Structures are given as C-alpha cells and as structure tokens.
Amino acid sequence: MKTEGEIYFVIKTENPDIDIDIFNQYLSIKPTTFDKMFVKGIIPKCTSWIYSSGKLINADYSLEIEKLISKLIDRRKEFINLQNFYPEFQFSIQIVIYLGTDNPALHFNLNILNFLNNINTEIDCDIYNSLAK
C-alpha cells in the first residue's frame, strides 16, 4: 500500500472582499490553487492562496518540505509586506500524509524554521491511516 500525501503553503483569510488581485499585487509567485470564499455557495468558508508540492507517493517528506520552501524563501519580503497590509491573513504549511507501508519522517531544518518564523507561519501536520481515505 502506498504512502500518499501533499505538502502545501497556504495563506487564508475570512475577508470575503479579498480576491486573487490582492495577492498578485504583493507576490511574484503564482499559486497552484486559489479558492475564493463562498464561490460555491457556502463553501469554501475562507479564501485560500495555495502553493503545493502536488500529489506525493512514497516521498521523502523532509526533502519535499525543503524543495517547497526553497521556492518560497527568496520571496520572504513579499510575504512580510503582504502580512503588513493584511495582518488578518493566516499563513500555514500543511502536511497531509496517508500512511501506507512506507513510514516517512518529518524533519524541519533551521533554515526552514527560521523562514517560517520570519513570516509568522504555523505548521499543521495531518497524518492518517490509509484506510481512512
């Protein structure tokens, strides 16, 4: 059975007036996904700007975290500027893993932790039994 998952950096807001243009004003990187609040009626319940690793199968999650952060780290000032103008925005690294026979490890080196701390980012790990999928 495969271990599957995804790692993504997300910026969330519950402000219904925020759209992709706001993010484009501050960030030079484009999201892999953008979900506007209430675009499908009552869902989603918040607007989410997401930059994702994509689907991972039997991956080295520590390496995948490093690869994702390496694409974001040079934009540190952009993220800080965005937060200065929109302090209600919530930043998070989401790690979702459905365990199979491969049991991945999670490691956050000091470079990653410093970057996440500098831009006030939380780490959220969701690890599930593959049977729960």
How would you sum up this structure, described in words?
The chain is α+β, with helices and mostly antiparallel strands. The protein starts with a strand and ends with a strand. It is globular. Helices cover 29% and strands 30% of the residues. It has one domain. The mean pLDDT is 92. Strand 5, helix 4 and strand 6 form a beta-alpha-beta unit.
In short:
This protein is of the alpha+beta class and 133 residues long.
Q: Helicity range of the residues? A: 25-40%
| Order of H and E elements | EHEEEHHEHE
- Proportion of residues in extended strands: 25-35%
- The count of strands amounts to 6
Domains (count): 1
What is the structural class? alpha+beta
Quote the distance from N terminus to C terminus: 12 Å
Q: Radius of gyration, rounded?
A: 15 Å
Q: What is the overall number of helices?
A: 4
Overall shape: it is globular
Largest sheet: 6 strands, mixed
Q: How confident overall, as mean pLDDT?
A: 92
